[in-house]
């Protein structure tokens, strides 16, 4: 039985509590949250024990699930790692790159399982493409959200865009060559809308737009590669693949087009998107990595790489404003 302690039981923390309760062979030891009203609500609804200190909860659990605000990630993760506990921490990994580097070092030295909560890796729409070779050379992303004061302790880059940065880095087996970016702070003290262009050494280009002051929600990624277009709708949980038809293609709609090189047959497919709870799946993956002693689905290095690109973007935006 894996004993899990939850650190931070606010809005997202309650989703974690609900999902941990559905995973077999897991027991919730209790939680730590300095907010009395939030804690009272959790005690009433879940019947969980509230621990007065971080150390006292860590001493009674095997793994720490950290959903506290980003500014607390480093201290909580460091304390957990020092005590030899496995760690799941919400994105972004830490508040600063120095903190992130230290956590990478500590996690490696402690030989514990460490997973970062980049939940879109477990989005059913993205998972439906597992059997398709994804080798994009151009990527277009739009992630738009309505304004919510919760989460504005970090910029839209670290709040929203980092999801797409992580997905893109997981797809592109190449180093970042250059980044250009523009961003504007509208409703908070940090950028609320941003447009970014990332160029990779293999010539792939990714254009990303993120906003948390939109009238409508959108979470779409479009991948363009040799002989294929792949559309992913993370919000509506839909995917589409438009490609040159091959004998192996089944259950696809086809039509012919005339090109300079003769007639070609185009296939349009909508891969089956299974129902799935992304948060439960990422927590289950963390549990599996611990009990099977396997690599975590989103490693501390993955979290570091996404943060590194995000901070390079913030630096570009900051320099533009300063200049």
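-> sequence recovered:
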């Amino acid at each position: 039985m894996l004993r899990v302690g939850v650190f931070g039981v606010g809005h997202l923390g309650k989703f974690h509590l609900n999902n941990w309760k559905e995973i077999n062979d897991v027991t919730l030891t209790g939680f730590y949250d300095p907010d009395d009203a939030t804690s009272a609500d959790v005690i009433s609804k879940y019947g969980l024990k509230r621990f007065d200190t971080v150390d006292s909860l860590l001493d009674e659990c095997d793994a720490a699930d950290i959903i506290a605000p980003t500014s607390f990630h480093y201290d909580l993760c460091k304390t957990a790692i020092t005590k030899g506990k496995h760690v799941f921490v919400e994105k972004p990994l830490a508040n600063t790159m120095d903190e992130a580097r230290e956590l990478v070092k500590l996690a490696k030295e402690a030989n514990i399982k460490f997973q970062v909560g980049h939940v879109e890796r477990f989005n059913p729409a993205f998972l439906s493409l597992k059997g398709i070779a994804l080798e994009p050379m151009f990527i277009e992303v739009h992630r738009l959200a309505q304004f919510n004061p919760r989460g504005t302790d970090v910029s839209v880059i670290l709040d929203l865009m980092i999801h797409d940065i992580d997905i893109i880095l997981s797809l592109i087996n190449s180093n970042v060559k250059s980044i250009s970016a523009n961003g504007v702070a509208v409703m908070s003290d940090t950028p609320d809308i941003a447009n970014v262009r990332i160029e990779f050494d293999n010539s792939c280009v990714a254009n990303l737009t993120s906003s948390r002051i939109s009238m409508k929600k959108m979470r779409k990624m479009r991948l363009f590669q040799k002989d294929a277009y792949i559309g992913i709708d993370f919000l509506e949980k839909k995917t589409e693949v438009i490609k040159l038809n091959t004998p192996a293609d089944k259950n696809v709609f086809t039509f012919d087009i005339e090109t300079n090189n003769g007639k070609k047959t185009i296939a349009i497919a909508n891969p089956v998107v299974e129902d799935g709870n992304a948060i439960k799946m990422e927590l289950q993956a963390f549990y599996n990595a611990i009990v099977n002693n396997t690599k975590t689905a989103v490693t501390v290095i993955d979290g570091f790489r996404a943060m590194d690109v995000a901070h390079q973007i913030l630096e570009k935006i900051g320099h533009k404003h300063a200049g």
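Residues 2-120+279-298 form a domain with the Rossmann fold fold (CATH 3.40.50.720).
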